[in-house]
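re: the backbone from monday

yeah here it is again, tokenized this time
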């Protein structure tokens, strides 16, 4: 089975908030864009919170302009399909957060996009870090997480992104 590989982070040096997914899904890998699935609510939420719109490049720039960095917990893993529940932990490799956080010293908190990202970050990354960052597990923006309505997801994301 083929390994899925993540993307480099989208981050300005002065980023204050780090949003983490687990690992890009098939659609995102095919398009080489974070949250490329049209039913994923991530970019819609960013538009409703920050007014972020435009093509992918413009949205990424506006995200950085708002002090938000975007990355995934995993650098690579085997995952048949796009469901987080199918990520194989044996052989999963986390991204290099020690180097990332050394280069982005203003990161003050981490928002995990969904429970799986939170579990992976807590299990695979936090024990290696020498700094104590607040980590909040956010409702997944994935279309697979239909248990929460969009307006409720937006409310929780808006509160977390505007907290100082």
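seq for it, each position gets an aa:
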């Amino acid at each position: 089975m083929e390994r899925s590989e993540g993307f480099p982070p989208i981050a300005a040096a002065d980023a204050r908030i780090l949003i983490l997914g687990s690992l890009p899904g098939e659609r995102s890998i095919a398009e080489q864009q974070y949250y490329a699935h049209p039913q994923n609510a991530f970019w819609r939420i960013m538009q409703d919170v920050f007014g972020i719109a435009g093509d992918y490049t413009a949205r990424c720039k506006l995200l950085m302009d708002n002090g938000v960095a975007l990355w995934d917990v995993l650098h690579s893993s085997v995952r048949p399909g796009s469901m987080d529940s199918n990520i194989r932990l044996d052989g999963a490799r986390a991204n290099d957060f020690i180097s990332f956080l050394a280069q982005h010293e203003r990161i003050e908190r981490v928002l995990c996009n969904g429970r799986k990202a939170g579990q992976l970050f807590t299990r695979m990354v936090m024990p290696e870090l020498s700094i104590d960052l607040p980590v909040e597990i956010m409702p997944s923006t994935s279309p697979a997480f239909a248990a929460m309505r969009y307006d409720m997801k937006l409310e929780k994301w808006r509160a977390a992104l505007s907290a100082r």
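Residues 3-162 form a domain with the Uracil-DNA Glycosylase, subunit E fold (CATH 3.40.470.10). The chain has a mean pLDDT of 93.
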